[in-house]
Amino acid sequence: MNIKYMDNSVLLNAYKKYDYLNTDNENTLVKIFVSYIKPSFLFKTDILTPIHLGRAVEKESSKDGKIAEAGIQWLHNNCIGDNACKDNISEVNRRVGFLTGTYYAWKNYNKIGNPQYFGSFGYRRLLNPSFLDTLINFDIVLPKSRNLCPETVKEQFIRIHGGETYDNMLEVFNKIYPEEMPELIKYFEQSSGYFDEIYIMRKNLFFDFCEWIFPLLFEYLKLAPLSTSSETRDIAFIMERLTGYYLFKLRNEKSLNYYEADVVVTQKQSVNRNIITGDLIAKLKNKIKETV
Predict the structure, then answer these.
(1) What is the CA radius of gyration of the chain?
(2) pTM metric for this prediction
(3) How far apart are alpha carbons 210 and 213 in whole angstroms?
(4) In degrees, to the nearest 5, what angle opens at C-alpha 140 toward C-alphas 137 and 143?
(5) Cα–Cα dist 34/50, whole Å
(6) Percentage of the chain exceeding pLDDT 70
(7) pLDDT digit string, tens, across residues 283-292
């Protein structure tokens, strides 16, 4: 899966070594949002900016006991909020995920230093900071693609999120970008892809991405949720895969220079049906054949 494990403090200190890249306040090189929905280890440097997603609906989390009042206070003390501007989509965070923070960055770019590059991480998954050594040589930094073999991206999506969610994704995408459908289908028929909505892009590419993805998001929001739960994340699952598709497009753009970096997680995750890799599935299938 090209995932490395690193201690929180070690990873934070590794990023702090690159603070010098942003010492010129009038010419910020890179800002990376680290998205939080609950208290955790704080990744905050001159490059890493923690952002609290779903701040507009935080009272719901407090009411049902998911986040205690002390936890909400921690988020307020340590993170900017995705509703810290009049034009925000924070209230739909529980359904759309990372993109409420992305929207804030897009609409408040000057407030975050008008950086030459913008990036997006989650508080549990970041990129190994060594890419910062040569960042200026590249237009985009991607996570190393994840191998799902023998599954395709489509098969993995349907197995985890269901066929109805997949069909909804295609229906809306075809409505907004019908000319791109063949390329999207090609991506979903692959056995590897980009996940987790992790990237660093030059400013112009980031703005192009926002202008491309938010018309899709707002169209998806017109669909009825597939679950009555207040925590349904059907659109978030779709947008993660479509972000992966967009990164795939940028990687294949011959005029752009790209770099693929290792994904770093700070806590080993137990294996469950949502993160089983294609390699593991293949081993299980072979084991079954041997016993038949």
Answers:
(1) 19
(2) 0.88
(3) 5
(4) 115
(5) 5
(6) 87
(7) 455 545 445 4
